[in-house]
Specification:
It contains seven helices and no strands. Helices cover 78% and strands 0% of the residues. The longest helix is centred in the first third of the chain and has 43 residues. The protein has one domain. With 170 residues, it is mainly α.
């Protein structure tokens, strides 16, 4: 099981690195488009029709896909306070609570990913396109269930790591 976990963890680490690069590129694009839009609007009285829409869509993608990466690296709010307060010296409690915590996160994320994929490919959504970019709205909505599906993968890794860690590994 530990060799599987090592390979799985390497894949998850690779996915996080890709997410970090994609999020960084999206943030740069958002910053440049917003800066240019502010200059155009206030200096020339002109505005790109698609600029605000692009920034909003990129923000949605950064939020959900970047949020999955934040969960993986431990950057999300968690039950750490409860674990550290009640779990001092109680390794079995700490491990059990970590497993339950990640299991609940995984189950909730499975539910949201499933419903998100269903909604993203619903006929109502697939027929919609954005006003400014003329982009099919499925491409915008799909970032939400992808983010939750990634959280499921990362939660599985956390559960497996918690199960296989030795008493001195914490």
């Amino acid at each position: 099981m530990t060799s599987f976990l090592k390979v799985y963890s390497k894949w998850m680490d690779f996915i996080v690195q890709v997410i970090k690069i994609v999020v960084a590129i999206a943030l740069v694009i958002m910053t440049i488009v917003t800066f240019v839009e502010v200059i155009r609007r206030y200096a020339f009285g002109l505005s790109f029709v698609w600029a605000e829409e692009l920034t909003r869509f990129l923000l949605v993608g950064v939020t959900f896909i970047g949020g999955a990466a934040a969960y993986k690296i431990g950057g999300m709010a968690c039950f750490d306070l409860v674990i550290t307060h009640f779990g001092k010296g109680k390794i079995k409690f700490t491990k059990t609570f970590k497993i339950i915590d990640n299991l609940l996160i995984a189950l909730f994320s499975v539910y949201l990913a499933y419903n998100g994929f269903s909604y993203s490919f619903a006929p109502m959504v697939t027929r919609m396109s954005s006003a400014g970019l003329k982009l099919n709205m499925t491409f915008v909505y799909i970032t939400i269930p992808i983010g939750f599906a990634l959280i499921v993968l990362f939660a599985i890794e956390q559960i497996l790591k918690t199960i296989t860690e030795k008493e001195g590994d914490e």
